[in-house]
Amino acid sequence: MSGNPPPDSPQPPDEILGIEDLHVTVHHGAAAALRGVSLTVHAGEIVGLVGESGSGKTLTCRAALSVLPPGVGVARGTITFAGQDVTDLPPRRWERLHGSHIGAVFQDPTSYLNPNLTVGSQLTEVLRVKRRLTRAQAREKAIELLTAVGLRQAWRVFHQIPAELSGGMLQRTMIAIAISCDPELLIADEATTALDVTIQAEIIELIKDLRDQRGLAVLFVSHDLAVIRELCDRVVVFYAGEVVESGPVEEIIERPRHPYTRALLRVASVGDFQRRELEVIPGQPPQVGARITGCRFAERCPAAVAACRTADIALTRLGTAHEARCVRVNDPALATTSAAVTAPAPAAASAGSAAATAVDPELASR
User: What does the pLDDT read at residue 339?
Assistant: First the structure.
């Protein structure tokens, strides 16, 4: 496995990231935004997070990076990295993990690159600070990294400023910075969303290659289920701050057991859910922090019964790695009923607005 263990910790185990029963509150503790989120990412594994806007994907990633915004905090739960509990790690210790052991790539690379500095100066700064390389060593390593992420004429890119690069080149540059110190974990939050399909496919292949070559563990956030299917080994489905289903990506896509997962698959036309007309998921997700008894998807689900609204619903284990949060998860009739969760979009709605209602990139939780 690439990279070195965090300071003062033993050799990292197979599990790189562990999140257990994570509860995150907003507005200085006034409302709960994440409830009991648990997931793991192992060495050489790519785990995808999917769900509607505000479902908690980005908040989970920010908690794992300890970069929650003001007024947002971890109320309960445990976050571990390479076997070390980092839930309450002081900022100085987090600085030693960021970059060196945990890399991150976000949706808009221009927001994270200084427009006035060359790509080379920004990349070499990371190498000189984090890896203590000399100026000459950092320059050589930077060009090597830019080449490794598929940038042609890396020496030329080294001397360019961000405005001279395309969106795909900028994202490759951000990935080069993220892996510059050989981290064990890469967190990619909507890293391919703003790219056209050709560049998107290239970035997907790049992440796969990094996983294969470096044993990199990846937590990958996307609203695009087709991308998740192409890239990920496992998928975790979020709804209104909870995990509603998780398991191997092919099993989830081919045999989803939660009505919300089936709804997402239908609006996205993935797997066997091929739509013939534009469809959306009726209704809206609950507001962040809303107090709801029972299933948080019940108000939008035609498969809901009285038991869905009477008490909190736990995840039901359906196999060695497949879980779903639904009281009817073992009901044979659910397969037929939940297929009708989605409904045709209103005639007046445009294709763009309907698609946004169905699977919009997560903004609300940022």
Answer: 47
Distance CA 104, CA 102 (A): 7
Confidence (pLDDT) at 320: 83
pLDDT in tens, 190-202: 888 777 888 888 8
Residue 213 three-state SS = helix
Provide the residue count of the chain: 366
Q: What is the rounded CA–CA span in Å between residue 123 and residue 141?
A: 9
**Pairwise CA distance, residues 358 & 346, whole Å:** 13
For the beta sheet containing 102-105, the strands, ordered from the edge strand earlier in sequence to the opposite edge, are 102-105, 185-189, 217-221, 46-50, 234-239, 242-248, 323-324, 316-317
Q: Are 361 and 58 in contact (CB under 8 A)?
A: no
86/92 Cα distance (integer angstroms): 12
Residues of the chain with pLDDT under 50: 1-3, 5, 7, 9-13, 337-340, 343-366
Place of tokens 């947002």: 72
How far apart are alpha carbons 56 and 34 in whole angstroms?
A: 6
DSSP H or E run through 170: helix 167-178
Do residues 184 and 6 touch, judged by C-beta distance below 8 A?
no
**Contact of 218 with 12, CB cutoff 8 Å:** no
Q: Where are the domains of the chain?
A: 111-180, 254-359
Count CB atoms within 10 A of the CB of residue 363: 11
Report pLDDT for 3: 45
Neighbours of 54 (CB within 10 A): 24
- CB count within 10 Å of CB 51 equals 26
Q: Tell me: the pLDDT tens digits for 296-347?
A: 999 999 889 999 999 999 999 998 899 999 999 988 877 654 444 554 444 4
DSSP per-residue string spanning 309-354: GTS--PPEE-SSS-EE--TTTT-TTHHHHGGGS-EEPPTTS-HHHH
**3-class secondary-structure state, position 284:** coil
